[in-house]
Amino acid sequence: MKKIKTLIENLAYKIEQGSMDAEIGDLIYDSRKVTKGCMFICMKGAAFDAHDAAAEVIEKGARALIIEHDIDLSEEDKKDITIIRVKDSREALAIISAAYFDHPADTLKVIGVTGTKGKTTTTYMVKSILEGAGYKVGLIGTIEAIIGDRHIHAENTTPESYTVQKYFREMLDAGCEICVMEVSSQGLMMHRVDGFTFELGIFTNLEPDHIGPNEHDTFEDYMYWKSTLFRKCRHGILNADDPHVDGILKGHTCTVETFGIKEGSDIQARDLRLYRDGSVLGITYDVSGKLDTKVRVDMPGLFSVYNSLTAIAICNHFGVDTETMNRALKQAHVKGRIEMIDVSPDFSLMIDYAHNAMALESLLSTLKEYEPKRLVCLFGCGGNRSKLRRFEMGEVSGKLADLTVITSDNPRNEEPQAIIDDIKVGIGKTDGKYVEIIDRKEAIRYVISHGTPGDIIVLAGKGHEDYQEIKGVKHPMDERDLIREVLSELKADGHEPGYLSGENS
Q: Is residue 213 packed enough to be buried (19+ CB in 10 Å), middle (13-18) or exposed (0-12)?
């Protein structure tokens, strides 16, 4: 139980009525989950304004209400209830949540990573390195939250502020010293990371994305909200090569350090060299500036340099030695992010989350630098989503891949063949070869059984997802399981991967 005055001591507020000494037993912001004696935060959502449910939550037993505009209550409803008005209920939820969980981020060192791309991979790299140095580290991100041995499926890249603070408290209780978390522009705009100060704020890069209804009206708005992280952290570490870095630093209140490939960064990558070791694709480079070391990353491309360099800059802040960094980077792998799957020593196969044209073009362009015998791209597109994405992804794959295998992704309420037909419109703008196989497992069987020495095969779009959504139902489907099943079935039939390579089109 906590007194109301303790919970709101860091909040700008006006008391409408009631006692500040009343004790509350829970903090709730979902009217369906009200408990007796709780404090209820009335928030406005896209489809529902919880202020409209004020009488209902009082009837269910709420002891205090946080409001940001007038509510319609009878005199009977107002009896024995504390009502506090604030400017922004979402901001209030963040500040109150921090107090409710006894300000865990005052003890836990929190690293916030923002940017358009690279957040997920970078956070896992950081976790791997810091744990290799003996730290106990929690993680919050797009795929999951990790607290000790617990892995909690994520609904949003950055959870609601109450959940963020709850996770911080649970991390401390589990013995964690550090939390590394992805910080989305939506999370910043919706005050999910208010109420505490980040130890480090990290900027990876910025590209036009998340612009549209229910997200950001303009690119400038998107950049602005990203920039607010650097008014919420003690020390900022930023990609100096990104053309928007000055906009991200506008109004910053933190100390600043930079990393990059171009001259002038505090931590700089030099002498980049691609390598291919059997089915493994990777890159090596030298680090100069604040650090002097050589780095090998068993992940392909320039973006792997930036992701690993970001992780190195972060971990250097915690005094991790370069030997530990290099050892941990070799072991750092992220589910569904350029995830190499060992299928055959003759060709490379990877799973990646690239699910729009921009991400797919970046990935395929990178892989072409490894001069594969053939670049094979397997992908589909989601149903009940923009057809433009289908046209664009088809055109990108047709232009860059030697063979495109069009299959099903999450068809939702559309027919898979209709989605494939849209993708073919985009491929039709190119000279790219393609085959269409609706069933994703059969499509995977096709690329594995037809793989030729020197091929690079990409399964794009699903990434870390472990389901396929059809007609409102999420059916279990993990591409790693499908690959294992295909390999097992090929072996049972006396075949190896690539046994049909002589029949390739």
A: exposed
The pLDDT, as a whole number, for residue 177 is: 98
User: Are 504 and 450 a contacting pair, CB within 8 Å?
Assistant: yes
Question: Rounded to 5 degrees, what are φ and ψ at 79?
Answer: -65, 130
Question: Which 8-state DSSP code applies to residue 21?
Answer: T
Inter-residue contact 189 to 89 (CB < 8 Å): no
**Among the listed residues 279, 423, 434, the one whose alpha carbon sits nearest the alpha carbon of residue 350:** 279
pLDDT in tens, 192-251: 999 999 999 999 999 865 556 566 678 899 999 999 999 999 999 999 999 999 999 999
Is the separation of the CB atoms in 226 and 203 below 8 Å? yes
Determine the Cα–Cα distance for residues 377 and 115; give it in Å rounded to an integer: 26
What whole-number distance in Å separates Cα of residue 436 and Cα of residue 408?
9
The average confidence (pLDDT) of the chain is 95
Do 204 and 261 lie in one domain? The reply is yes
- The residue out of 310, 331, 352 marking a domain boundary is 331
Amino acid at 221: D
CA gap 399, 386 in Å, rounded: 21
Residue 292 φ/ψ, nearest 5 degrees: -135, 105
pLDDT at 504: 44
Q: Tell me 211's DSSP state.
A: B
144-167, pLDDT tens digit by residue? 999 999 999 998 899 999 999 999
Tokens coding 484: 């294992």
Question: Buried b vs exposed e over 22-53: b needs ≥16 C-beta within 10 Å?
Answer: bebebbbbebeebeeebbbbbbeeeeeebbeb
pLDDT at residue 387, as a whole number: 94
Estimate the share of the chain in helix, then strand, then coil, as percent rounded to the nearest 5.
35, 25, 40
Looking at the 3D structure of the chain, how many domains does it have?
Answer: 3
State the Cα–Cα distance between residues 350 and 462, nearest whole angstrom.
11
Q: What would the pLDDT profile of 445-498 be if each residue is shown by its tens digit? A: 999 999 999 999 999 999 999 999 999 999 999 999 999 999 999 999 999 999
Single residue among 331, 366, 398 that ends a domain in this structure: 331
The alpha-carbon radius of gyration of the chain (Å, integer) is 25
Cβ-Cβ contacts under 8 Å for 478 (sequence gap 6 or more): 465, 466
pTM of the prediction?
0.92
Q: What is the mean pLDDT of residues 402-431?
A: 97
Same domain for 361 and 309, yes or no, is: no
Q: Does 197 lie in the same domain as 86?
A: no
Share of the chain above pLDDT 70, in %: 97
CA torsion through residues 230, 232, 234, 237, sign = negative
